[in-house]
Every structure is written in C-alpha cells, then in structure tokens.
Amino acid sequence: MRILHVESGLNSGGEEYRIADEVRWLNAAGYQAWIACNPDSELFQTGLTHGTHVLPLRMMSTFSPLSTWKLYRLVRKLNCDLVHTHSPIDAWISVPLRLFGVPIVRSRHITNPVGGSFFRTFCYRYGCDHLLPTAKVIRNAFLEHNRIPPERMTVIGEGVDVKRFHPNVDGGNFRLLWGATPQDILFGCVGMLRPEKGQDVFIKAAAIVWKSSPSARFVIVGDNIKKGSSMREEYLRIVQKEFGYNGWKPGRSISLSRETPLILHGHAEDAAAATAALDVAVVPSLREAQSRTTPEAICLGKPVITSCVGGLPEIVEAAETGLLVPPGDIEALAKAMIKLAEDSTLRLRLARKATMEGRERFSLNSRMQETVQVYRKVLTSKRQLVNIR
Length: 389
Description:
The chain is of the alpha/beta class. It has helices spanning 14-28, 42-50, 65-78, 88-99, 118-125, 136-146, 172-178, 199-212, 231-243, 271-276, 293-299, 312-315, 330-342, 344-362, 364-388, and strands at 2-7, 32-37, 54-56, 82-85, 104-108, 130-133, 185-190, 216-221, 262-266, 280-283, 304-307, 322-325.
C-alpha cells in the first residue's frame, strides 16, 4: 500500500508530530508513505533533519488549480493508492482528485465546530471517502451539526510510541538539573507554549498551592520560538508577578527550592525523560481535541490532572488514572494539585492504574492498525464501485 499524507500547515504542533509518527510507522511496517507539505513549513524542515519522507508542495490557498495539478502529478508519479489529508487548505486542494478516482481519507484534529452550511460541510461529506475524527466529541459534532453518515467516520485517537514512553523511563537527570529533591512533589506541564494550552492557569494555580503545600514544586517544559510569539515573555511576567523572580531556566543557575518553586525549562528534546521526572503531569488546556502529552504521561505511569474539555475526558478516567477540572478554573486546579501533593496513597493508586492501562489503550501500533484497516476498507469500496460501473 502506498499512502501520501498531505499537510498544508506552516507551523509545528501535535498534528504535525502525529503525521510524522504515522508516516514513520507505515514505512517501518512495510508500507510506503510520504508527506507532501509546504517547503517553508516546520514539518518539512524537521522531516529533512530526521529523515522523514517529506516532499515539497506549495499550498497557500484553498482554491489553487496549480497546487491541485501538482498534487495529482505527485500522486501519479508515486503511484499512490490513497491520499490522507489533514487541514482545510490541503483538503480542498485534494477534492478534485477524488473526481479522478483517487481515494481520499480526511482527519479532523481540532474541536472547533464546522459550520452547518453546505459550503462548510461539503469538503467533509463529499470531498473524502472516509473521515477520521481524533476524538468522539468531534465525531458527535459532525453527526449533530453536519449530518455526516456515521458509517463514513472512524474515531482514531492519539497513539503513543510505547518504546519511548513507558514506566521504566528514567527522569532522574531532569530532576537533578532542576534541583528537585526526593521529598519534592513535582507538578509539570510539557508542551509548546500556546494560549490554548493554559500554562498561565497552571502558573497562577501553582502560586496558590505554593502557599499551602511546602513540598510542592512546579516546572513548565516547552517554548514557542515562532516569529512574533511573545508567549515566553508573557508567562515570565506572570511568574514575576506571582512569585517575585525570573523563572527562566536556560542559561541561569536557578534551581527549585521553597523560595523558587517554579521554573520554565524551555524546550526539551527528550520529552519522555522530562515527563518521567514529574510526580504529576498537568494538562490545563482551554481547548483540546486529544492531547499527545496526556496519553504519553499515562503510558509513563504518571497521574494526570487535565481540564474537562474536548477529548481529554475520553483519555483520563476520573479518579482512576487522574483528576479532571473545569478549563480555566484556577481554584479548581489548585485544589486538585493540593489533593495530590498531600495524598501519597492517591498518587500511587492513580500511577498504578496508569501503568496498567497505558500500553493497552494508547499504543501507536494499535492506533495505526486501526488506520490501516480504514485504508483497506476505503480501497476495497473503491474497487467494488469501479467493478459495478
């Protein structure tokens, strides 16, 4: 089977990381897969660096006959069996290919509602052969507002590379780097600094926890180097206001202590080890489909506190693998963190449950087997339709 993923986005985030992971899995499993993406995108540059099969295709507008023609030529040149699209621009560019008999699968990675108008719905109902929402909440919205037939949708959530994210990963070097002692209860957020990720909520909640739980410590792992982004500076201003010091770790000798209980580590290449260093992973997202960091933390055997938003309640079993709090509720998040800081028995019980369930529920291999089944189903339907004609 030969699959061409198409992604028009210029920036890098969970969606792009997932596409790269899926293409690597497909090639390792004996299939042939590529990613067609903008040559000036972060996905393309990262793909070149890490040896992912990326191909340049400029896509800047939903209506671009030239991009459509180049995509069609690429499909013919590679003799692709199927095209898998991910974003609005690449999805619209791919629509005409379906008229020429190219099977199209479309993923939907975000929970933003799709308008119910004919134009908004067209690309999902008629522009692809099968739709892959990444969470049940997205599928339910399509059923309710866009009347997409349920048999044309399959929910496939985030997959985790359990060879990298497992309970035996050692986070000791990160704890040493941060100055965390064995007695410290370390809460942390891991992920790119973005407004919708709610790291500001985490900082403000940490300031409340700090006053009542002497052993609690806090770390934010991630950065945002996108041109024009001021997220790092904004969060450092909040840290300065709440704690009275500059919490930026890179290039400084700052360490976790009672006087400096929170630090911003910046980007960490080894996200598995950074998350393994935590006692509790916190995902305070304001909007989320299915966070990568949440199932990764569970596969590492970590208790998780997440916002009850989007597809996160589909990942975290309340009081089983973690705690759920209302999105943006600083007081509720602080209360949940205090509860886990002071109740070691609860932390251990949640961690044990996470350790038991992580590999079975979230392995990338299982998710990709489901995806390949969808590919085969679409291809079989196409062949049957051709034979009927």
